[in-house]
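User: My advisor, Dr. K., asked me to get a structural model of this assembly before our group meeting. I'm new to this, so sorry if the format is off. These are the inputs:
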Amino acid sequence: MLELLRQALIIIGVLAVPFLIASGLTWGERRLLALFQDRYGPNRVGPGGVLQVAADMFKILMKEDWTPPFADRPVFVLAPAIIIIATLSSFAVLTFAPGIAVADLNIGLLFFLAMSSMAVYSVVLAGWASNNKYALLGSLRAVGQMLSYEVFMGLSLMGVVIQAGSFSLGTITRAQQHLWFCVPQVVGFVVFTIAGLAETRRIPFDLPEAESELVAGYHTEYSGLKFAMFFLGEYVGITLIAALVTALFLGGWWGPVLPPLVWFLLKTLVVIAFFILVRAALPRLRFDQLMEFGWKLMLPLSLLNLLVTGAVVLWQEGLRF
Amino acid sequence: MLSILHTIWNVFTHAFHRRVTVRYPEEKRPLPPRWRGRIVLTRDPDGAERCVACQLCSVVCPVGCIALQTTQDETGRRYPAFFRINFSRCIFCGFCEEACPTCAIQLTPDYEMAEYTRPALVYEKEDLLIDGTGKYHDYNYYRVAGLAIGGKDKGEAEHEQPPVDVRGLLP
Amino acid sequence: MATIYIDNEPYTVEPNGRNLLEVCLSLGLDLPYFCWHPALKSVGACRQCAVILFRDENDTRGRLTMACMTAARDGMRLSLTDPRAVAFRASIIEWLMVNHPHDCPVCDEGGECHLQDMTVMTGHVRRDYRFDKRTHRNQNLGPLVNHEMNRCIACYRCVRYYRDYAGGRDLQALGWHDHVYFGRMEDGTLESPFSGNLVEVCPTGVFTDKTLGRHYTRKWDLQTAPSLCVHCGVGCNTMPGERYGLLRRVQNRFHHEINGYFLCDRGRYGYEFVNDAARPRVAADPDTVRGWLSEGRVAGAGSPRASLEANAALRALVGAENFYAGVAPAEHALVALMRALLEVHPTPPPSLREVEEADAVLLLGEDPTHTTPRLALALRQAALRPPMAAAGATLKIPPFDDAALREAVQDATAPFFIATPQATALDGVAMQALRLAPDDVARLGYAIAAGEGEIAAALRNAQRPLVVAGFGSGSPAVAQAAAAAARALGARLCFTLPACNSLGLALFDAPGVADMPRDVKTLILLETDLFRLLPDAEARLRKVKHVVVLDCLATPTVAAAHAVLPTATFAEADGTLVNYEGRAQRHFRVFPATGDVREAWQWLDALRGVTRTFDEVTAALAALPAFAGVEGAAPRAEFRLLGQPVPRQPHRTSGRTAVTANVDVHEPTTPPDPDSPLAFSMEGYQGHPPAPLTPRFWAPGWNSQQALNKFQQEVGGPLVGRPTGVHLLPVNTGAVPAGTPPPPFQPRADAVLFLPAHHIFGSEPLSARAPGIAALTPAPALAVGAALYARLGGGPVEVRVGDAVLTLPLREDPALPVGTAVLPVGLCAEALPAWGTLTGGPRDA
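Assistant: The format is fine. Below is the predicted structure of the whole assembly, which you can bring to the meeting.
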């Protein structure tokens, strides 16, 4: 009975915390961006402007939930739901601290990769259903970008999998008790971080929603609550990628003094902060540059990493026997 | 690649720089006296209305936000019967001030005019007229104009000869 | 055809005795000028139009000469842009500006000032004069013209116009050298009834429109439309201007054949009745009126001051057999007679330009200065021009050299003969002015027709003789005599008409309102004041069950009506009016009517239950044989230039986001205008529209009325584009109705023949309600001859004429024929001339 209650609490926590972080990010990102740009950011509503979150939420909920008459209505409504479902379900396979996980699947990493592929559908369907040329262009870009980057995103993780000998995120984290994988898998770490940025369509990879060219890309026609879902979806995605980076490369919950869960959260937040720093620092790529970067640099790099890791692991195994 | 990292580092160091934002309602920047803000109608050094309702400001206004009606008192002095500026249309270009031949209409360093409703931004003469001379302290149009008004007869303005005696035979 | 080289460019021109300034302006070239005026010609006083004239193509030095004083000849070579000419012209402006005050912001001429335009044109942009300026005291010149003498640049245009052209005596150039003063000997109202033209003649702000000054608006803010003067039968073209829903002024709209460059004061200043606070503005319920109409026995009276369309709409509402002309019986008969006489006359009635070109004039029984004033101004030119032409031919003076010609002519005038009971303002230019009773005037006309007397001899020698008579005498015999004389002399025949659409109403061939049956149930009066027309108006109205009045004036009939439908004035309505020549012209709405006020034809259509556009009303009108072709008076409402309408507002109109902001911050949409090709907007085709649609005269660099030269085919010539107006009156249709000379006038011992006296200010009902005109309206007085005046002792007298009894002060007119007295019209509804009695005199206490 207690076990059931505990499990229920974990599930609720896993559902709630990413949401809390994501909505906090709507304020936090702006504050951080401002910090990097010598500004203040939202600092008027509540202490330090933190109630901006509530204000924004209130505003966006009050807005008219408008579906354009020319849109494909069912698909138009479905699209934002997909992104939320896909990103949230990935959280299920994360192990936040020993014993704190919804379902530490032995193929957890594959599940995550599958779910992140699902998120592409949301973007494609949103762009398609909007019946708007900017939205369609944005979603086409998203498909090209996400398909390309998913390839080496998966490959970059294989090094970790080989070293840990498991697809289970819990096992992978446990394998980092003495050494974080970001040290031996430094190439995989870098490639995955970049791929993660691309996967969440963050600057410098925000071409699908490049406002200077495509108005707002695939969610041009969205407003109100449905727009909020896209918006939140993006932040939940960032949180997810940051949590994965933490679990896969930065030793997950491992750390001294503080309780494991706190360590996990702290590391995740630092990664998120790094993402925001990148946004503050780098400009947007051109699409051909994006593709070239992905296929000609990242893919060979991750393949090389896989090759070397495999060779080293085999060599170490050989030594043992 | 290195440059990207350098950029990221560079931006990161800005987290520890002083912020340039002026937190407006609490602290205010000093404005130059020729700042183009809220428009006022001034008075001449004698305290009389400077505006002679010549309608040059209204015609030069690129957004057409000035409307007035000319009228005159019994002594021939001209003034606007009404003078209306629709600040919800004004772009504060300052053309009106430039066109004004009497230095009556002036833009002031006041920009705090926000209102909750647009009708509140429609200023009438009572709202525009101030009790001072504004930026130009000495100018009094009627002292250089040839028109006779109450208190200033023909020939009494600056650089004027006394009125011609038509019946005189002196050269 | 001649070729003239201007700055080495060959131009083909028609010299035609024109000067170089006229040639340059006709070619569209800009050459500054002040003293020259297209109607006043040249005097060469201002030295502003200097050009360099070369002897031949080898001459490189040339000499400075005044373009306005040099006749154009074939092969001439001149330069406008030669630096010496440019510098000379700039220095002239600089000297003119030395004493010009810093008044532009408070000057009514500012923004439409010829001096401003010329100053900018010559490039004199800095005023370096730092010494004392000359000043002048102003004069009070009456309620119409404002005087601000400081601004004068001494071009002499005002006195040349006022004295030489218009025949005024009281405005003159006083003082000498640096002290020249243009004004009267003492303060007082300008006597000439054409003084308003000084406002347009003066190149700067010395003479400005006093009525405009009371509600001043700059030219760039005035919403204008092509319009017509409605204050007499001449049909002058005007440009009324409106701002904030108030009519601000009327300016002359040049018409080559009619008013030319000038208007009379009644036409220029009569407009203020539009702004009259007493105007009816509250409408009765049209449904009630429609209910009354269904009761049957309906009659309607049309009006000579309503447009053809309004009258036609009334005729359609009540039926042709129930449509009556709202005109006094005597006037109705007289206008019908004059129309018939014009239709059988071999030549069409002359336009005012043709009147000016006449070389001999016979004026019978009419004082046009007080009935159709603009005609009087044209007649004055007819008297002065022939001797000037003759002098020019013998002395080889070019026709534009006005001062030399007038010097040569002195007081000589053309064969110009006047026969009226009263003195007229034209007597001064007449060869002979006879004071005769109307019947004797008619006898004189018949005598001339028979070729008797020296007048007939003088007229028979003329090439372009002209006979003028009209409604002013009130005598059908005079009209018939005039027609007989004109036919016998082969002269043009011109009849004056009382109202702006008198002839148009006559073309409906409706019986007069006096013939209307007395048992009608519902009477619809369109802009008809029955009390002015019929002595028994009150009794008649009392018998009618429902009196419906459509009017724009607060008349006694409006007060007696059961239902009032307020109609638009000329400034708020489209309409076609027929002038004394039978020329149908269109006037357009200047601004939309507000409140309950609607155009008369719209009310009448609403009562009939139909909705039509103005063009449909005109088309229905044109179906009547008398009005065939009337749609040609102006372009149809669909007419567009480059797909755009013609804007009523100039492109500089100001304050569009502030004018109504105190009522509503959202800018109103422009009112639609489905009835004309014009728009109540500043957006549209700002170029030169066809002449009937020209709302204003403005060209880049030419902000004043003088921009007109850019709109003319040549200086003084017709406007570009299609001509305005169509002639509706047939000509030379048959035999002259036989007329016989009346017996000679016999004074009666027991009675006095009361003759009608019209006055330019006050006799016409619309303008009489304008404050400026009302201020000049003389107090009614009875004019009597010297003997009678002595007998009555100058005291107030009691006049009995018909049923009317009036008590009036006396005025002496020594030249008046014995046995007659002159009674101002409009005091009673009795037809004049009429016999009546006169009692009174000094009364002992």
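One thing worth pointing out at the meeting: The radius of gyration of chain B is 25 Å.

User: Perfect, thanks a lot.
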